[in-house]
């Protein structure tokens, strides 16, 4: 493929030099590149497709690495990598192996951390901002400018994310927390918080109940989270802010997959044993390698997971207290969408809440129920 603008981007300064129209064209090229890369190589393509405009706007407005971006989990950092000297690793098939799927300071000065676990970005950002502010107090300057955490709505259910929000409000000082709300974790979000996020989306950010404001944080809502012009405008307004702010943006996970918007409701029949890269919020978008799975045997974890679920399912009718619990990684443990639908109250996806899931299981066991906790661990 030809990649006119993208292949000319070697540093964020090249993004600063583009015209507004070129910025839009760059987003288009990046989306095409991600789709092509995903088909050939696989990866967290759905998550990255949703943040194309956000990442381009971040690099347009801020000045990395002086300004620091911390991508939560960092599975959505491909666009950031493309804009920080690593575009060829996505454009040139022979170089696909040159970058990892997550941020890594050994790869680039634009990556602050090796990440993988959800929910940590706000705490990491608080730490960077704390030291920046102490350095400024002592010497009047710091090598760190704006600190920006980018966290998904799914990752927001991690306990540590709330610990970070709690710290951020108290700490004060410049800290920008971008909540990338695409209404999906890997599977659907779970929990009472998500009803409140939906109300914020529906009211253009004006709903009275606002969990971010409840923490004492400033708040802004951006409905057009996939519009680069809007994002550039908003980020320019919050750049250099002197206190912590949550910028809640509404985006579409998987934006650009062939099917257009038709499967955005998350119930698009995406079949985990035969995943198709649908548009919008299909779980398959989040798969490491959607196409490689087609027609091939399941990997061992999914295979044994499916066997375990089949044997548990046979017991549901005789064991009313049997509960399968999954903290947000159903597919990788062989918990298919069909199983979830059939299981009803016997299945709970607690969201990205491993600690809660373990304690929840303990409570169920104490009360005489039989919990089965299916979680991912190294
Ligand atoms: C502690 C922990 N639990 C589970 C995972 C697996 N995981 C990776 S990304 C992800 C979903 C993230 O969803 P969200 O934050 O909404 O980002 P999106 O991909 O939708 O943009 C999960 C559950 C993980 N990386 N870390």
How does the SSE layout of this entry go?
Layout: H1 12-16, H2 20-41, H3 45-50, H4 52-61, E1 68-71, H5 78-86, H6 88-91, H7 121-139, E2 147-152, H8 159-171, E3 175-181, H9 192-202, H10 211-214, E4 218-222, H11 228-238, E5 244-250, H12 290-293, H13 300-313, E6 322-326, H14 337-343, E7 347-349, H15 354-366, E8 370-373
Parallel strand pairs: 1-2, 2-3, 3-5, 4-5, 6-7, 6-8
Bound molecules: thiamine diphosphate (TPP).
Describe the structure.
With 378 residues, the chain is of the alpha/beta class. The protein folds into two domains: 6-250, 3-Layer(aba) Sandwich (Rossmann fold), CATH 3.40.50; 300-373, Rossmann fold (3-Layer(aba) Sandwich), CATH 3.40.50.970. It contains 15 helices and eight strands. The strands form two sheets. A five-stranded parallel sheet has the order 1-2-3-5-4, with helices on both faces. It has a three-stranded parallel sheet with strand order 7-6-8, covered by helices on one side. β2, α8 and β3 form a beta-alpha-beta unit. The longest helix is centred in the first third of the chain and has 22 residues, at 20-41. It is globular, with a radius of gyration of 21 Å. Mean pLDDT is 90; it is low at 259-282. Bound molecules: thiamine diphosphate. Thiamine diphosphate is lined by residues 47, 50, 73, 75-76, 116-118, 152-155, 180, 182, 184-186, 253, 286, 328-329, 352, 354.
